[in-house]
Amino acid sequence: MCAKNEGGRCSIFIDEGFYGSRIVSYKDELNALGVANDNNKECQLLASYLKCHSNIETISRIYNFLSTYKWVPVDEDVLENCKYENTILDFFAETFDVKVHPSVEDYCKLWKSWESSEGCQITHKECCAFWEFVVRNWTPGMEDTFKNNLSKLLVLDPASNVIFLFDKCDVFIGDDLFLTNLFIKTFSRPIFVWFPQPSQKTLTRTKLVEIYTRLGVRTLSESVKKNTSDVDHDAFKPVDSKEKINKRGLFKLILAYLVDPNLKIELDKRHEAVSSVLAIEAFETPEKMSKMERASGHKNVIEYASHFAEEIAEGVLWDNEELVPDLCKLIRLGFLLEFDEEAVEFLMKIKNLQIFLEDHDYLTSTFSS
């Protein structure tokens, strides 16, 4: 192995595992040839080149070497963000005083350091690691600790893809898609709390919404009042919800999708999601209305069906956006079937979907009133 020292000379290291231990007996001869034999100097030289490497195997070999010779760092800024073997992690703990099992207080200190650092660029990976710890260890006691220690929360600027920290009183959970899009277009700075993109199994939007809410973050829908009287009724015509949206077949499809045990969506959450569709006040342009007509051609119908499915799916699953594409496909198929109940039930059968008795009772009570 060869590395350049401060003078620019190449220092050569001998692999005793390859040459055998007898190679050490030629210490003077090797030294005359420029082969390094001072362990401290070797360690310092190797450590200084850690940041030049990106291959985890190479980095791990260097740290194993440093660990073997119990190297003590001069410059502690040499740790790389990689997944290491346990022996190397033990070395980090002993040499750099790295916490093997950081506590809630340690994470609060980290967050405080982010808050106090002007211009601190927090990465997506760091955000995920922090909130994964929070989600994994969330308890009522932890809630109080974070309420007292987190005065700012993360927001993502969609234009620059940069993550910032803003006062938690000035940020919102974007639970209303129409309002969220409107505010994104209107405000010069981001105001919506950060969520991982794409969503992760260990860090779901649903769980983060729950935690953000407990930390005092308000939803946009409860903070803003919509006034539809300002809508240009010449350009937008109100949609008859009973005729085009509130169809039993549509709601049966939505419930059949949400009832999947793998999604872990509880009964009240399912019914709450469906109720949000019932409360929709929709408008459409004359152009969209014309595309609704079957006589206007298959392309226009499937285009309208796609837009319709996207809007409904995003509204139902605003806090589980990773599930939107699958529900969207299902609603689009149902739309093409005009949400005819017999056709919807056959679709559910071939898609291996069903609704439970309590969901059936909910549908019956909803559409009998």
UniProtKB/TrEMBL annotation:
Domain of life: Eukaryota
Protein name, as recorded: Uncharacterized protein
Native organism: Lactuca saligna (Willowleaf lettuce)
